[in-house]
């Protein structure tokens, strides 16, 4: 009998719970959540509500469940050292220690690592601890600059010239406020191209890619509006993306393999967990935007339902360092994930649809889609939204067109003051990506 601790309470953890539940080993699931996710609870033997910072409480809960290993969903508990605390108690994790999670929590650590070990993929960048030299450095970039704080910002801390600020004066004032708060600021050249997410399993030595996914960060159709945690994502049946060339994924994978090796050489520790590379394909080749030390949200919802390999076996092989001898397979299907969000999601507080972020919603008759709960609260009188992304709706089919239709049909059955991006996964949007890449590649 296998017991697993799952940490997290979003749609990403809901799909992880479901995937563990598909295992022939029928694991008992012990779920530690900050708020009650009814989807995760339905898959769990036991749930506990608590803070991600309550490391003692988490270890205690894991001991009670006699868990064999933990799967950590979000970055916050990784950053707080939950994997280290569990390891001390003899419990291994799918997820890196606090030090190795710097791959995500410190963009400077990662940029420096690539540079030190001669790994391709960095844009031109520099770290500043004072304003001195920033203006001169930014002036070197004719296509603009990007400013990043060091540390976790929920995917919303990156400032891109042209999108979030204009010109050197504004850049400098942004840098000044980041310096005040974080002590250091990363300034890099603005790249142009199309982004893809390549999530990989890593046991410290072997890196195994999952199907590539494209996420959509902007709140509104046509990539308009503010950045969000992600409004939806799609993947193709060939596990590539329509705007990529075969070599593009191989390049991202090669970077990730070299980074896994560099982490070991730099720290003496093997990285055991998910390495999620956010890449951009540019005219000059594949560039690394960032790493995440966990599954993507929404991207986990695209890839995990397609895994054919027993997921408990996979997690154990990752922990034991035997990924190389496990055959890891994914169904050759296309997926389209769309997040259903409160109408006011992502909008400034003074511009929100009154009350929409805590309204009740109802899911009508749906079939042939996977629905994952995110920020919702199951009360006696129904399902309520709780301010953020509410439901991940995933269509899975032989081709993108059908997968997209399935997702849309299901979303049409959801009532309440909700919104979603109707363009994600459509031929019109995907063709724009293809044309964009054609133009960039000349
Ligand atoms: P990150 O959190 O580093 O992935 O950045 C968030 C988003 O900012 C990315 O998904 C990109 O859309 C954008 N971004 C980050 N770095 C760059 C860059 N060097 N050039 C252009 N856009 C970038
Ligand atoms: N999809 C972006 C993220 O998970 O960070």
CATH evolutionary superfamily of the largest domain: ATP-grasp fold, B domain
Secondary-structure content class: alpha+beta
The average pLDDT score comes to 95
Main sheet record: 6 strands, antiparallel
Q: Strand percentage, roughly?
A: 25-35%
How many discrete structural domains? Answer: 4
The outline comes out as: globular
- Identify the CATH class of the largest domain: Alpha Beta
CATH architecture of the largest domain: 2-Layer Sandwich
Structure description:
It is a single chain. The protein has 442 residues and is α+β, with helices and mostly antiparallel strands. It has four domains: 3-94, Rossmann fold, CATH 3.40.50.20; 124-189, Dna Ligase, domain 1 (2-Layer Sandwich), CATH 3.30.1490; 193-325, ATP-grasp fold, B domain (D-amino Acid Aminotransferase, Chain A, domain 1, 2-Layer Sandwich), CATH 3.30.470; 334-432, Glycinamide Ribonucleotide Synthetase, Chain A, domain 4, CATH 3.90.600.10. Helices cover 32% and strands 26% of the residues. It is built from 14 helices and 25 strands. It has helices at residues 11-21, 38-43, 55-64, 75-79, 82-88, 102-105, 107-116, 134-139, 167-182, 246-267, 299-303, 311-320, 400-412, 427-441, and strands at residues 3-7, 28-33, 46-49, 69-72, 93-94, 125-128, 145-149, 159-160, 185-189, 194-202, 207-209, 214-215, 218-220, 224-227, 232-235, 273-282, 285-292, 334-342, 360-363, 369-373, 376-379, 382-385, 391-397, 414-415, 418-419. Strands 12, 15, 18, 20, 23 and 25 form a six-stranded antiparallel beta sheet that branches. The longest helix has 22 residues, at 246-267. The chain is globular and about 60 Å long. The mean pLDDT is 95. Glycine binds at residues 155, 215, 230, 292, 296-297, 299.
């Amino acid at each position: 009998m296998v017991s697993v601790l799952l940490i997290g309470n979003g749609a990403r953890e809901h799909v992880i719970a479901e995937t563990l539940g598909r295992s022939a080993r029928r694991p008992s699931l012990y779920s530690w959540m900050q708020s009650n996710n009814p989807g995760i609870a339905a898959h769990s033997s036991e749930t506990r509500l608590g803070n991600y910072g309550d490391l003692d409480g988490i270890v205690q809960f894991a001991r009670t469940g006699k868990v064999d290993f933990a799967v950590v969903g979000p970055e916050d508990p990784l950053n707080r050292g939950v994997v280290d605390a569990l390891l001390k108690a003899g419990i291994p994790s799918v997820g890196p220690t606090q030090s190795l999670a710097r791959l995500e929590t410190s963009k400077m650590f990662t940029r420096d690592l690539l540079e030190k070990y001669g790994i391709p993929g960095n844009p031109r960048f520099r770290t500043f601890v004072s304003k001195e030299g920033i203006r001169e450095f930014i002036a070197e970039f004719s296509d603009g600059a990007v400013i990043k704080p060091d540390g976790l910002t929920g995917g919303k801390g990156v400032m891109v010239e042209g999108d979030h600020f204009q010109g050197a004066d504004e850049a400098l004032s942004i840098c000044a406020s980041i310096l005040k708060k974080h002590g250091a600021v990363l300034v890099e050249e603005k790249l142009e191209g199309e982004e893809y997410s390549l999530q990989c399993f890593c046991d410290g030595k072997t890196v195994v890619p999952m199907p590539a996914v494209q996420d959509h960060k902007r709140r509104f159709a046509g990539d308009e509006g503010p950045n969000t945690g992600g409004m939806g994502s799609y993947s193709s049946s060939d596990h590539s993306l329509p705007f990529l060339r075969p070599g593009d994924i191989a390049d991202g994978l090669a970077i990730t393999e070299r980074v896994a090796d560099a982490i070991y050489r730099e720290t003496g520790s093997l990285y055991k967990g998910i390495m999620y590379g956010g890449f951009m394909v540019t005219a000059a080749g594949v560039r690394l935007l960032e790493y995440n030390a966990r599954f993507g949200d929404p991207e986990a919802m695209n890839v995990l339902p397609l895994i054919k390999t027993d997921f408990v076996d996979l997690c154990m092989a990752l922990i034991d360092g035997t990924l190389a001898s496990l055959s890891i397979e994914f169904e050759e299907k296309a997926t389209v994930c769309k997040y259903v969000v409160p109408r006011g999601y992502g909008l400034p507080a003074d511009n929100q649809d009154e009350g929409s972020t805590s309204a009740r919603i109802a899911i009508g008759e749906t079939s042939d889609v996977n629905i994952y709960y995110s920020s919702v609260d199951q009360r006696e009188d129904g399902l309520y939204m709780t301010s953020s992304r509410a439901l991940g709706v995933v269509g899975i089919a032989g081709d993108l067109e059908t997968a997209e239709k399935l997702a849309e049909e299901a979303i049409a059955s959801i009532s309440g003051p909700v919104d979603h991006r109707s363009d994600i996964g459509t031929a019109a949007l995907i063709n724009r990506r293809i044309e964009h890449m054609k133009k960039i590649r000349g």
